[in-house]
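Go through this one:
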Amino acid sequence: MQLKEWPAEFDLGIGPIDDDHQMLFRTIQQLGQNIAENRDPNIIAATIMSLSLYVDEHFEREERFLLRAGYPEYDAHKTAHDEFRDSIMSLRHYHQEHSDDVDADKIVAFLEKWLLDHIAKVDRAYEPYLTGATEGDPKIRQRLKYEERSKAMVQITCPADKEQYVRHFVDLISDGSHEGVMIEAAVESVTIKQMARREAKAKRLFGR
């Protein structure tokens, strides 16, 4: 990595988020070190898995903070998170299937650039909303209550406006109906397409 130490100027002054950012930075550092030292592919895979899990945990925490603060650019921010989540998932699967074809330098460069650009530019924009210096949007705040209430009712994480579909799909699959079999086949087909898309994406971003 270009940076050997965490830049203090990247701290936002928001304890839990700063801690998360520093942990992500250290995990990327560890991945870069494992790659530079040509460690066992299983160790590298475990580090990528750790990074993936921590990214999910951090993004979920940050997104709750943004909803609570009424951050007006929440949707665009979450879209950026989702794109990065997808990139990490693509990397995970690609490394599992084609570890010899992965360009280690590309992995570290991509992760470092995304993390630092995202924190220095994208995350910096929400700082005044989380610190209370700028008033948030009440409509965004209401979405937090609505999403939490919806998720509690169906007891799985899903978009609030998709609850009826999730319930209906579960009913169809559970009763073994013809429609349920069709849904299972459709999910399998979509999953195959998703895996192919992610592999192509990972090859473009991280392949030799």
Remarks:
- The chain has one domain: 8-206.
- Residues 8-206 form a domain with the Four Helix Bundle (Hemerythrin (Met), subunit A) fold (CATH 1.20.120.50).
- DSSP finds eight helices and no strands in the chain.
- The chain has a mean pLDDT of 84.
